[in-house]
Design goal:
Blueprint lengths: L1 H14 L7 H16 L5 H29 L1 H15 L6 H12 L3 H15 L3 H9 L2 H29 L4 H16 L7 H29 L2 H14 L7 H13 L33 H31 L1
Helix pairs in contact: 1-4, 2-9, 3-4, 3-9, 3-10, 5-6, 5-8, 6-7, 6-8, 7-8, 8-9, 8-10, 8-12, 8-13, 9-10, 10-11, 10-12, 10-13, 11-12
């Protein structure tokens, strides 16, 4: 049922895509922002309690509804699961940005590609490096940051969600991971009064995504250039030994090596503020080429090959359970 629900949800999403800026997502973000106003900004325990109430509470509530519907009729539970996956899972929530930038670059319209990248940066609340590329970057910088944002978005909207959907019962895993990402979007902003909120959202996301992102990184290595992917992963771990829980750094390093293209890899304490050894690389990095518009096709191929491997792993997981 899990694999079938995933296939149906992805098929529906391809036929009738749901964009990230939709009514349901906007309502959830609004409620999360409203909760921030009701919690003591200087109380770490109260902020964590609010996070747990939103993520764990909603995941448990979704699991309970699914089980009740399953008692009434199994088909109702399947439809509920597919509906939740349709709202939370999918490439079309972000891929339109990537393809629009690619089309603008093919038309040699650099200002338009910068504008489109700027919209994507705003959607994802991306870092200063991506914002700089959207304001004054050349073609290589725009391609580099577009690929980086695409890999991060693929992990947050597809790969990580699939992992927890398979591991936890019902829709609890999918809801918990999706809400963790939404909390990161809503609370992760670096504003003047959001210090503890931002820290809580980012720490929670690193905990939740610690294992899924490493599974994705291994898959990138398998379906891409294995040696360069592993070498990039290992060199970045050695270069930043104090930030081993940095999910984006692991993901981007593995992806950069897999497609053989230099990407901006975070090495800072928070995984997003310091980029001193990013584009230039460190001494142990393999030789990677500069990003060009053709690199975007390589990134798309890497993601779709990874999707196939993910579904194959899900199939093996449930086949093993059935045989036992």
């Amino acid at each position: 049922m899990t694999l079938l629900s995933l296939l149906i949800a992805l098929l529906l999403e391809q036929i009738r895509p749901i964009r990230q800026a939709n009514v349901v997502h906007a309502w959830v973000i609004g409620k999360i922002e409203d909760m921030r106003g009701m919690v003591d900004p200087n109380g770490a325990r109260s902020i964590w309690a609010a996070w747990l109430m939103v993520v764990v509470g909603t995941a448990f509530f979704g699991l309970l509804i699914g089980r009740i519907l399953g008692i009434v009729h199994p088909l109702l539970e399947v439809l509920f699961i597919v509906g939740i996956l349709y709202l939370t899972l999918g490439f079309r929530q972000f891929s339109h940005r990537f393809h629009e930038i690619q089309a603008a670059l093919r038309a040699d319209d650099l200002p338009e590609s910068r504008r489109l990248l700027g919209l994507w940066v705003a959607d994802m609340n991306a870092d200063a490096v991506a914002r700089s590329a959207s304001e004054s970057g050349d073609e290589s910088a725009i391609v580099r940051e577009s690929i980086r944002l695409a890999l991060i978005a693929a992990q947050r909207h597809v790969f990580g969600l699939i992992f927890w959907f398979v591991i936890l019962p019902g829709v609890s895993g999918a809801l918990a991971y999706w809400l963790t990402v939404q909390m990161l979007r809503a609370w992760g902003q670096r504003d003047e009064d959001g210090g503890l909120f931002s820290q809580t959202a980012r720490v929670a996301y690193r905990w939740v995504d610690w294992l899924p992102v490493r599974v994705t990184a291994m898959i990138f290595a398998v379906v891409g250039n294995f040696e360069d992917s592993v070498a990039m992963w290992r060199s970045r771990a050695a270069a930043s030994p104090m930030q081993l829980d940095d999910t984006d750094r692991v993901l981007i390093a593995s992806g950069a090596g897999a497609i053989g293209v230099r990407l901006t890899i975070p090495d800072g304490p928070t995984g997003s503020d310091d980029y001193e050894a990013t584009i230039e690389g460190v001494s142990d990095d393999p030789e990677l080429r500069e990003a060009t518009i053709h690199s975007m096709n390589s990134a798309v191929g890497l993601v779709w090959r990874s999707v196939i491997i993910w579904f194959f792993l899900v199939l093996l997981f449930y086949l093993g359970r059935w045989l036992n």
